[in-house]
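Entry for the shared binder. Reason: the reviewer on the internal report wants the predicted structure included alongside the sequence.
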Amino acid sequence: MLLKKANILIVDDDPDVLNALRLLLKPMVKSVTIEKNPNNISNILSHHPIDLVVLDMNFSGAVHTGNEGIFWLNQIKKINEDIAVVLMTAYADIDLAIRGLKEGASDFLVKPWKNDKIISTLTSAITKKEAAKTSSHINSPAVNIIGESPVIQDVFTKIEKVAPTDANVLILGENGTGKDLIARALHDNSNRRHKPFVKVDVGALTSSLFESELFGYKKGAFTDAREDRKGRFEMANGGTIFLDEIGNITLGQQVRLLTVLQNRQVTPLGDNTPIDIDIRLICATNLEPQVLADEKKFRKDLIYRINTVDIVVPPLRHRGTDITLLARYFVELYAEKYHKPPYTFGQGFLSKLKNHPFPGNVRELQYVLERAVIMSDGTELKVEDLVFSSIEHSSKPTASLETSSLNLDELEKNAILKVLEKHRGNVSKSAKELGITRAALYRRLEKYDL
């Protein structure tokens, strides 16, 4: 659990508040430092590795700005902008606390507090901090790829190695895994990043549109060709062309595409003069590798041409704790989009998410959480706010992608998740049904980061 690794500083001029929070948090975090005087914040941050600051918004010290919390928040961010800050305020100062969120605070707490609310808020703040640090692993201004699991870190490593080259890349993965984000990240981290990035869903192009869309045409080439038009390959000249759903094109279309890739030239319809092109090719498909290897469906010479390097994007069900990071990211995104307040997760909410197979992958998770934010009342997302699509339920993952479910750790983790969901997060009842002690269950929760 991320909270267990956190070093927390609490700054409040009320000794009772400091001691209460220290006693509450000490068993749950790596270290707790308490401080009455905010003027000492700079010195503490210089000498201690602090991950999160819990900061009161009103002090009786030397700073009299009328909103001391905002002042000290800005001071903390000047020292280290990566430190998460959670503000504490009274009901009367909630507007000020919301201003603090705009100034860079992670969240705020209202006094008097509830212990479970504090733990949930601090966990969320630490998780968002780690997610931001992880997502910056891929330096791509156009996309935000979030994940800390070993399988997604392997993808990040491949992107870092492959992006600076001009190697053709084939991205493999199920629908909804984010293949288009990987393609964009490859372009944004390449030497062509200041040139065009052109995406084409080639699987959706009919035979009659395939050549005119990709290679362009001259005026009068066919009935509706009223003016010259550049094709997508020519538009991408100097940059990257991303051919999505490449596995769905016909054998005839494959031949025409192969000719262009071999010659690095396109000839618009209605013209006999070839045009030289300088492009980096990225393709993607949701087909299994064995299907692509079937010469009745896909030409081997084209596969070799487009597949200098392949990147396999893992399904969400294989990404472990990434689902928590993604859930917090999407909830925050849609709360801002729909002008809703910051949310916390109610008991059993994350367990229900983790126990769902997500055949629609990250795209399904995104839509589920958008609906939850739209339909929810209050500031806590509850189990009943999660409604999974019957469309996705009807599509089951292929057996070849589910072999890891035979792993003993995976079986134990899934069993724990099911029992926790059944008892709505009650550890005592769950431990009893599993036939283990509460302490043993807590050890397993920590082991699987649940």
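Summary line for the report: Confidence is low (pLDDT under 50) at residues 394-405.
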